[in-house]
Amino acid sequence: MLTIGMRDETYRYRGLLKASKVELITRLNEPDTFIVDVAPELAQQATRLREGWGLVLHDGGLRVSGVITAFHRTAKDNALEVEVTCTSELVFLKDRLTYPDPSHPEDQQTTARYQDRGPAETIIKRIAARNLGPGAIPTRRIDGFHITDDGGRGSTAAIDTRLKNLLETLTPIATTAGLRMTAIYQDGKINFDTTPFKNRARAVRLSYLSGEVVGWEMTDRVGTATAVVVGGQGEGEDRRLTSQTRTDSWLRRIEIFKDRRDSDNPETLTAAANEELEKTKSERSMKITLYETETRRLGEAFNIGDTVTIDAAAHVTPYSAQIVEAKISWENNTRTVELTIGALDTTLRQAEIERLRNEVAALATI
């Protein structure tokens, strides 16, 4: 059963909110978003909500919280309707740049770049603590943002950055290392943590035979690059160039250039090429409408980031892949779940916008 809690700007719990409908989209290592339609008979109660407040969704093993980002109010026939939009507190990382020296203000920087190396969980939590957590300077610190204990989990990773978006910097590191980043309100504070994915391909098999898969669609897409040439420091014929390639079943060599004149470190340049190959690889996206059972519930038997097996139909080969997105809606005491497996579905326009964004980012050297 879904409950919706309220908390104020000081993270003090303010009671429950009743809703007629809730829609949640949760994605791997991106901020969750959800919209709450307040029950009409309690719409007046929602007027207590203020900027800076947040809501907490709790349903069984599923717990999601978010800071309010929008109110939409409508009055019809003397009845007030209130719609509240929230984004999970992981967005606080998206609000920050990676300062080269986070211990000083922007006009007092003492180094050109922020660099760190170690277990992925360690370096993720360390840079988060220094840019918005307890170790941040007062003007950038978010009171109540708690960094959980470091377990040194995940593979060895490296950070080499300067004034880039913090969340965009950490997302590929966490995903590659097999970690899911979360920021969830509990016990009067926001707990930021990284937890390992689990391979449940053998333990969790969602099948049409057992009635768990009630609808599905699948899309295969060619990648946008299979060869990445990275340019380091230098000019003209003296410029350092390196490349990485990847072959796939589409049998095409698709070349792109990545500008990294900010570094001449071979390890950094190779990592940049591999990161680009990972973002531009060919993809399969599968969406399923799930009929949940007591032993097959999101947040309990499996979660975002876990690998599961989908047995969609008699003529379709069972497919094991990672859960990258879930769309959940609650209405009339019914919970509906749609899972995206493998890769996020994108339109041609979205793919083109992402390509252009990557090209601009590759040219930006601060």
Give the gist of this structure.
The protein is an alpha+beta fold.
- The portion of residues assigned to helices is 10-25%
Rg from Cα? 22 Å
Looking at the structure, what is the overall shape? globular
- Give the termini distance in whole angstroms: 49 Å
Mean pLDDT across residues = 90
- Could you give a short account of the major beta sheet? 13 strands, mixed
DSSP summary, beta strand count: 21
Draw up the topology in text:
Blueprint lengths: L2 E5 L5 E4 L2 E9 L5 E6 L15 E6 L2 E15 L2 E9 L3 H4 L19 E6 H12 L13 E3 L8 E6 L4 H11 L2 E8 L2 E8 L8 E3 L5 E9 L5 E5 L9 E5 L9 E5 L6 H14 L3 E8 L16 E5 L7 E13 L2 E8 L6 H16 L3
Parallel strand pairs: 9-12, 13-19, 15-17
Antiparallel strand pairs: 1-2, 1-5, 3-4, 3-20, 4-7, 5-6, 6-7, 8-10, 11-12, 14-18, 15-16, 18-21, 19-20, 20-21
Helix pairs in contact: 2-3
